Every structure is written in structure tokens, then in C-alpha cells.
Amino acid sequence: MRKIVIAGNWKMYKTQEESAEFLNGFLPTLEDTPSDRDVVLCVPYTDLTVLSQNLHGSRVMVGAQNVHWASEGAFTGEISAKMLTEIGVRYVTVGHSERRQYFGETDDTVNQRLRAAQEAGLTPILCVGESKQERDDGDTENVIFEQLKIGLEEVDQNNLVIAYEPIWAIGTGDTCASEEANRVIGLIRSKLTNQDVPIQYGGSVKPENVDEIMAQPEIDGALVGGASLKPESFARIVNFN
Ligand code: PGA
């Protein structure tokens, strides 16, 4: 049985005060949320403790947005897996396209970060996806297969989530057609040794399209950016039909 995982990705949004306000609005909306789904919030480092303290005993799990591969060392600006697990973090996104695009993340560093996360007991969410140019050139499958091949080397597929996020659909309002997302996610699954790895779709998921996306047979969840910033819209997504 594949697990359903709905994760918010706050990116570089929300101070501690704003994150506490979000929780006040969001937590009461989870009373009737079906138990078949994991709910995760991947937030800026400074918000992790606030969430961890306030989510104790709730069903929402705390996630970070990156993790370094070394257990400690001279890596200014980075954070280790142990520093995250110490404060109750359970999930971490790795290889988000914004990290790849703006911060030089490569498939190789993504792979190292994934393995370090798993060794510390975190569940990594590996993000893959093609650019508009790569899609137009007919390279979608090749790009994603390469990201998976290098990214998943020696990675434990029993403690992993994958997010298919076409770059052209992120933050643009231009969602990938749900049938197409379903098709690509099916192809990703065909490359895995463990068929139970949950595979999310990400890219302009919102209250208006979440039901249709989640109705697709291959799609096991969503990674949600913009629409996870407001309690009411993320609540609607988490409570998809
Ligand atoms: P979006 O972002 O929902 O705002 O498109 C998704 C993501 O970057 O994970």
C-alpha cells in the first residue's frame, strides 16, 4: 500500500510569529482529515522549533528544506541531519529545483544529501523535474531518468518520497495536466525497485485542482508551495476529496 503524503513547502516565507499565526488557523481544520494521509510542513530553519513545539501531539510532521551530507564540519551556512532530528524534524526536501537552479545543487550533491538524511532517520523528499526548454526539446524522460539514476544511487527506497515537479509549473499557476503528471509519475515508478515509494506531484497545486490531481492513480500526494502559506488553502488541499 502506498502512503499519501501532502507536504507544504514554505520556501523563504514566514517569521516565527507568522508561523505561529498560521498554526492557529490551520490546526483546527485537521479534525476531520482522513487518517490515510501524512501531513508535513517544510519550513525555514528558524521556524522549525516553533513548529516542533506547537505540533507536538498533532498529526502534522515537521520538515526542513535542505540538509548537508557531513555530520559536522567547516560548511558555513549549512545544517546537519543531526541538528534537524534533535529538534523533532522528520522530513526534508532534497534537490528542489530552486536549489538546483540558484545554488548549484547537482545530482551528485543531491545523492549525498539523501543518504545523510536517511542515515539520521529523516525521510527525504527527492524533487525531480524538467525545465520548459527540456520539455519542448522532448527531453523530459531523459532528464528525469538521469536525476533518478544518480540521485538514487545507494539510497534506501524504503524510507523515501519522490516529488515530480516540472519546473515550468512551479509558482507559475500553470499546472501540468493531471493526466500528464500521472504519466510521468508512472514512468518514475517504473525506474524504482520499491513500488511502494510515494510519488507526489508539485507545481501550482491549489484548492481548485487538488481533487483532480489526487484522483490520478499514480499520484500519491502533493508538494505545495504558494498555496501552503494560507491556512485555509492548505487545509482545503490536505482535506482533498
Ligand atoms: P508552487 O511551488 O506550489 O508554488 O508551484 C511548488 C514547489 O516549489 O514545491
Name some characteristics of this structure.
binds 2-phosphoglycolic acid, alpha/beta, TIM Barrel, 241 residues, eight-stranded parallel β-barrel, globular
Strand order of the largest sheet: 1-2-3-4-5-6-7-8
- Roughly how many Å is the radius of gyration? 17 Å
CATH-level-2 architecture? Alpha-Beta Barrel
The CATH homologous superfamily is named Aldolase class I
* Heteromolecules bound: 2-phosphoglycolic acid
Structural overview:
- By secondary structure, the chain is an alpha/beta fold.
- It has one domain (4-238): TIM Barrel (Alpha-Beta Barrel).
- The chain is built from ten helices and eight strands.
- It has helices at 16-26, 45-54, 81-86, 97-102, 107-119, 132-136, 140-151, 178-190, 210-214, 231-238; strands at 4-9, 37-42, 60-64, 91-94, 123-128, 161-164, 199-202, 221-224.
- It has an eight-stranded parallel β-barrel with strand order 1-2-3-4-5-6-7-8, surrounded by five helices.
- Helix 3 links the parallel strand 3 and strand 4 (91-94).
- Helix 1 packs parallel to helix 2 (45-54), helix 1 crosses helix 10 (231-238) and helix 5 (107-119) packs across helix 7.
- The protein is globular, with a radius of gyration of 17 Å.
- 2-phosphoglycolic acid binds at residues 9, 165, 170-171, 202-205, 223-227.
- The site of 2-phosphoglycolic acid (PGA) has 13 residues, from strand 8.
